[in-house]
């Protein structure tokens, strides 16, 4: 299969998924030979939107197997384990997500085609929820406080849920786990590859810059900002 054909399938899969045609999206994504971690993540997201947790988990397994450093893959699988009430497994995945965040406040997946920033405080929040479900209130409280402190270093309105959870527990109430927004579940094809499916007229021979072959995942630390370079492969 040519690069153009693979990019067309990827783009079609995303368009079908965004339109709610999840079965068609799965068909598109699964036609791509030797799919990347991002494709497996998209397939898993499509199955999740259909309520098919078993196939979603199977594809998240393939996702993190293909890219063992993908923090978002572990986080999403942890969230799935929460849905299946496998709280010990969820804790393991959230710990792996934190490990691959490598002490950073966040990882920005924008350059890899997903408009989402995964924050360490979100992982800590869900880890606290899993601990609560296992009856370990003290560990839950400590994780929520840690999450609140971590969230103070960034500015996202959605992180108010951490303070709300702390207040709820003080009044004897519980709280719900955090999930990825439905609008942030699809990795898009890299721009430098979608160009192959668009007619382009050059006044002179095109030159491919080495920098166009890679994308940068942005991470933010407590001390400042740094970047890690990752290959944008199909």
From TrEMBL:
SUPFAM superfamilies: TPR-like. It is found in: Cytoplasm. It holds the Pfam family TPR_16. The keyword Cytoplasm applies. Keywords: Cytoplasm, Repeat, SH3 domain, TPR repeat. TPR repeats lie at residues 37-70. One of its GO terms (molecular function) is superoxide-generating NADPH oxidase activator activity. GO terms for cellular component: cytoplasm. InterPro entries: NCF2_NOXA1, TPR-like_helical_dom_sf, TPR_rpt. GO terms for biological process: superoxide anion generation. The keyword Calcium does not apply. Belongs to the NCF2/NOXA1 family. This is Neutrophil cytosol factor 2. The lineage of its organism: Eukaryota, Metazoa, Porifera, Demospongiae, Heteroscleromorpha.
């Amino acid at each position: 299969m040519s690069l153009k054909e693979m990019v067309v399938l990827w783009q079609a899969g995303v368009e079908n998924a965004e339109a709610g045609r999840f079965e068609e999206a799965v068909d598109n994504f699964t036609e791509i030979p030797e799919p990347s971690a991002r494709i497996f993540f998209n397939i898993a997201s499509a199955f999740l939107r259909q309520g098919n947790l078993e196939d979603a988990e199977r594809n998240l397994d393939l996702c993190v197997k293909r890219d063992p450093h993908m923090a978002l893959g572990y986080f999403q699988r942890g969230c799935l384990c929460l849905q299946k009430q496998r709280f010990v497994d969820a804790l393991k995945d959230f710990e792996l997500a934190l490990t691959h965040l490598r002490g950073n406040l966040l990882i920005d997946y924008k350059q890899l085609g997903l408009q989402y920033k995964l924050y360490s405080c979100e992982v800590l929040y869900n880890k606290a929820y899993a601990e609560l479900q296992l009856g370990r209130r003290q560990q839950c409280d400590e994780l929520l406080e840690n999450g609140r402190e971590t969230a103070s270093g960034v500015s996202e309105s959605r992180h108010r849920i951490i303070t709300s959870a702390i207040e709820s527990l003080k009044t004897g109430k519980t709280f719900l786990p955090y999930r990825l927004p439905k609008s942030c579940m699809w990795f898009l094809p890299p721009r430098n590859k979608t160009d192959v499916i668009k007619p382009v007229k050059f006044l002179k021979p095109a030159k491919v810059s080495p920098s166009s072959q890679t994308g940068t995942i942005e991470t933010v630390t407590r001390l400042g900002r740094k970047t890690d370079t990752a290959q944008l492969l199909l």
